[in-house]
Design brief:
The complex is a heterodimer of chains A (260) and B (168). Chain A is mainly α. Chain A has 10 helices and no strands. Chain A has a single domain, classed as Ferritin, core subunit, four-helix bundle (Ferritin), CATH 1.20.1260. In chain A, helix 1 runs antiparallel to helix 2 and helix 5 runs antiparallel to helix 6. The N terminus of chain A is likely disordered. Chain B is of the alpha/beta class and 168 residues long. Chain B is 24% helix and 26% strand. Chain B is built from 4 helices and 9 strands; from the N terminus they run H-E-E-H-E-E-H-E-H-E-E-E-E. In chain B, the strands form 3 sheets. Chain B has a 4-stranded mixed sheet. The longest helix of chain B is centred in the middle third of the chain and has 15 residues. Chain B starts with 6 loop residues before the first helix and ends with a strand. Chains A and B meet through helix 2, helix 6 and helix 8 of A and loops of B.
């Protein structure tokens, strides 16, 4: 299944779960806006993005379920896309800290989306040339959708930064809240090594895009600020993920195997 | 009993699939959409290869169920539906007949000259023809519409808001 000889089954599983968890948690956060968007069109936009991300997560979970089923050292109950999403606990989730951060106001939601979508854009550009056929196919498909997310969120960053004093103030506050979680995106966890992704190139491209959008948004922020918080990729999450999972997983935990 | 090994059987399946429509855009058949990539017979089993339009398209599950139902009704009992992600679906695969049906239904069809989304912000928008009054004087209201595959436009002449099936 995997054409690259250096990658163990466990590594592939962890890597796929990491990609899936990123998309699922970001998608779930976006879905919290459904019915609460500032205007109808933007409510629809962010719900659309939620749907795209949850769709990506499904593709990654479905793919991860195949080697998990064949593996002898993985929990036997976690062999479907649903059980992977609904029956794993906080420490088993491998998403980066950025995506689990609360939505805050519209500026914080937008900036988080922009940081994350830009990261996904450059990551999937690399993954669409991966040696693993299925990974390649999922990335190529998702890249088309992520392109819309990048465009939509960067236009909003520009609108808010170059808007009123109030919108600018809020965007700067969002920057202070979120910047410390962006470093983790480019710090590879052990399962991300040897997956043929060039983290240095990805970081360069990401920085370039972020700086050009910030410039257009007329905001001057200390992007070279050094301190970064990490841990999410290896299961050390902020308190926010537990609360998110408690809500997202409630039905399956309270009524095991329920369907509708 | 139908002879599944017969080429006629495959042709018959394609004709049956023509009757399965997109639950969100009921004027389009799944063949118009271009999401059926292959029909194959493996002994008694019918295998249909479907490519999703969007990763998170909720219509995909409904379409799979409908394919199963209509094939069962027509005497095919062993049905396998395989999701094929690669190559990724594009609006280029939508049939010309499908595009005409969309327009008649009030949805602007995807531009025949593919202009897909690029990440740069505030690009010049392509001119989309209003499906009601045929004017090209329209404006983008939102990149994201009532379903993942559509954007929201408004005609500046007849003032009608309309959906545009965006290039993808």
């Amino acid at each position: 299944m995997n054409k690259s000889i250096n990658i163990s089954t466990d590594q592939l599983i962890n890597y796929l779960l990491h990609l899936a968890d990123n998309s699922l948690i970001m998608g779930h956060r976006n879905s919290e806006w459904c019915g609460h968007g500032p205007i109808l069109e933007q409510d629809i936009a962010i719900s659309n993005i939620a749907l795209d991300l949850i769709g990506q997560a499904r593709n990654f979970y479905q793919y991860a379920a195949i080697p998990i089923k064949q593996s002898t050292n993985q929990p036997i109950n976690l062999t479907t896309e649903d059980s992977l999403a609904y029956l794993r606990d906080t420490r088993e989730y491998k998403n980066c800290l950025l995506v689990e951060q609360p939505n805050g106001d519209w500026a914080q939601t937008i900036l988080k989306q922009f940081f994350f979508s830009t990261y996904q854009y450059y990551l999937y550009q690399q993954l669409q040339n991966n040696a693993d056929d299925q990974l390649k196919a999922i990335a190529a498909k998702a890249l088309k959708e992520v392109t819309y997310h990048v465009r939509w969120s960067s236009e909003w960053v520009i609108r808010l930064g170059d808007g009123t004093d109030e919108s600018k103030k809020r965007l700067l506050r969002a920057f202070d809240e979120l910047w410390m979680f962006t470093g983790e995106l480019f710090e590879p966890a052990s399962y991300e090594l040897n997956m043929s992704t060039d983290f240095i190139l990805m970081k360069e491209e990401w920085n370039k895009k972020v700086c050009s959008v910030f410039e257009e948004a007329t905001i001057d922020v200390p992007v070279e600020k050094k301190w970064h918080q990490s841990g999410g990729k290896t299961g050390n999450h902020s308190e926010h993920l537990g609360l998110l999972l408690a809500e997202m997983q409630f039905m399956q935990r309270a009524y095991p195997n329920s369907e509708w | 009993m139908i002879d599944l090994k017969d080429k006629q059987a495959v042709n018959k399946i394609w004709r049956i699939l023509e009757t399965v429509t997109d639950p969100e855009v009921p004027v389009l058949s799944i063949l118009d959409l271009g999401i059926v990539r292959n029909v194959q017979l493996n002994g008694d089993e019918v295998e249909i290869y479907i490519t999703p339009t969007y990763s998170g398209c909720p219509a995909t599950d409904a379409i799979n169920t409908n394919i199963r139902m209509v094939l069962l009704e027509n005497g095919f009992s062993t049905i396998k539906i395989t999701q094929q992600l690669s190559p990724a679906w594009t609006t280029d695969w939508m049939s010309e007949k499908g595009k005409e049906k969309l327009k008649a239904y009030g949805i602007a069809p995807p531009h025949s000259k593919q202009i897909v989304c690029a990440p740069d912000s505030f690009q010049k928008e392509e001119a989309i023809q209003c499906p009601q009054c045929n004017s090209y004087n329209s404006r983008l209201v939102s990149q994201f519409g009532s379903t993942a595959c559509k954007a929201l436009y408004q005609c500046n002449d007849c003032k009608e808001p309309f959906d545009y099936f965006k290039c993808h």
